[in-house]
């Protein structure tokens, strides 16, 4: 029943009925323990957040088996990535010297930063089933010599594909010190592959040219609170921290992130729900004869037999937000996974679309 009240209240029913399957968020929301801390954070909102930043750094350091001075907290991992690219740019006297190599397609932020900062960006096409072409990437990175920043998103967005750990680690181990690896592990928490290992291991082993970024925006369900971080060797971190403001996260985000980190049972619950949501979707895709890429994230890249712009518009008309077009070539859509109930709603709509020839 619609309630009379503020304009915000009146908006609510319409907003709730929209299925938001476009931005790789956690539809289940934050951990119940984290919500309690969120409420308590109101009591300290008048104070500067330093102590909370240190507490979160300490908790993350313990979790990752690194020291707190190896962690940079930022306003979402986007801000870590910006700091890394800026530091790479700033440390090179001329643009001709710095190049960035990434797989294509991948998350677009680094390419945009390169345009802003005047760095050359080279996207190396992915291979079969969107697997990163490690050989071609290494070749592109080595070409012409000189400093290069490798941006490796693993698992990748928008494909969900994990870069093979042995090949990536071998490449990093034989690379010269002018090759810097930015390993974006935004979806690390979702990976369920025995052969996968986080690149934090290489940082623990002492590699100065590896920086890993992570976020609380995905499995932790905190996209709106903006908490992310980078991990690196402490010397690398000393340079990187020059490109980030010390007090750039609010105390609420810091406190909630720490509580969320401690709530492992909520994360396990979210992972189970994600798997269930994925199965509901992929079973239907199989039934409808629409291919999909096996992935390790909270989204699925799948075939559509329709023009993407038409598909997206028609889905929006039916109250569903699907992913935007992401250089995957025609006939693909990236769909974020919602709750199992949301996915049941979605697959009914998709099945109807298929019947009408719209998908
Ligand atoms: N990296 C990847 C691969 C992403 O997909 C995203 C967001 O979708 C981000 C980084 C940025 O996340 P945030 O700034 O919310 O931490």
UniProtKB/TrEMBL annotation:
Every Aminotransferase class I/classII large domain range: 18-349
**Signal as UniProt keyword:** yes
Instruction: Report the superkingdom from the record.
Output: Bacteria
Q: Which GO terms describe its molecular function?
A: pyridoxal phosphate binding; transaminase activity
The family note in this entry says: Belongs to the class-II pyridoxal-phosphate-dependent aminotransferase family. Histidinol-phosphate aminotransferase subfamily.
Q: Does the keyword Signal apply?
A: yes
Q: What is this protein called?
A: Histidinol-phosphate aminotransferase
Pathway(s) where this gene product acts: Amino-acid biosynthesis
The record, for InterPro entries, names: Aminotransferase_I/II_large (IPR004839), HistidinolP_aminotransfase (IPR050106), PyrdxlP-dep_Trfase (IPR015424), PyrdxlP-dep_Trfase_major (IPR015421), PyrdxlP-dep_Trfase_small (IPR015422), TAT_signal (IPR006311)
Keywords from the UniProt entry: Aminotransferase, Pyridoxal phosphate, Signal, Transferase
């Amino acid at each position: 029943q619609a309630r009379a009240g503020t304009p915000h209240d009146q908006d609510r029913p319409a907003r709730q009925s929209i299925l938001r399957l476009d931005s790789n968020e956690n539809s289940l929301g934050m951990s119940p323990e984290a919500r309690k801390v969120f409420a308590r954070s109101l009591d300290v909102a008048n104070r500067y957040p330093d102590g909370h930043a240190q507490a979160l750094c300490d908790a993350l350091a313990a979790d990752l088996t690194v020291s707190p001075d190896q962690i940079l907290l930022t306003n979402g991992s986007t801000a870590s990535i910006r700091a890394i690219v800026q530091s790479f740019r700033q440390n090179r006297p001329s643009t001709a010297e710095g190049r960035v190599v990434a797989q294509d397609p991948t998350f677009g932020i680094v390419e945009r930063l390169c345009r802003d900062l005047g760095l050359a960006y080279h996207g190396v096409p992915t291979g079969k089933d969107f697997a990163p072409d490690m050989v071609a990437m290494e070749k592109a990175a080595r070409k012409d010599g000189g400093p290069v920043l490798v941006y490796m998103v693993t698992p990748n967005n928008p494909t969900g594909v994990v870069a093979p750990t042995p090949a990536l680690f071998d490449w990093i181990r034989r690379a010269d010190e002018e090759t810097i690896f930015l390993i974006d592990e935004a979806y690390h928490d979702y990976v369920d592959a025995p052969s996968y290992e986080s690149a934090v291991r290489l940082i623990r082993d002492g590699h100065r040219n590896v920086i890993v970024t992570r976020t609380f925006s995905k499995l932790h369900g905190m996209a709106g609170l903006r908490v992310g971080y980078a991990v690196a060797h402490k010397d690398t971190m000393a340079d990187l921290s020059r490109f980030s403001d010390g007090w750039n996260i609010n105390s609420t985000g810091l406190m909630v992130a720490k509580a969320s980190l401690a709530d492992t049972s909520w994360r396990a619950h979210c992972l189970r729900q994600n798997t269930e949501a994925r199965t509901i979707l992929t079973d239907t895709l199989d039934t409808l004869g629409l291919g999909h890429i096996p992935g390790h994230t909270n989204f699925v890249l799948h075939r559509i037999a329709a023009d993407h712009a038409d598909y997206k518009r028609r889905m929006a008309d039916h109250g569903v937000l699907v992913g935007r077009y992401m250089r995957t070539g025609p006939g693909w859509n990236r769909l974020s996974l919602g709750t199992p109930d949301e996915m049941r709603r979605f697959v009914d709509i998709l099945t109807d679309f298929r019947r009408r020839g719209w998908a």
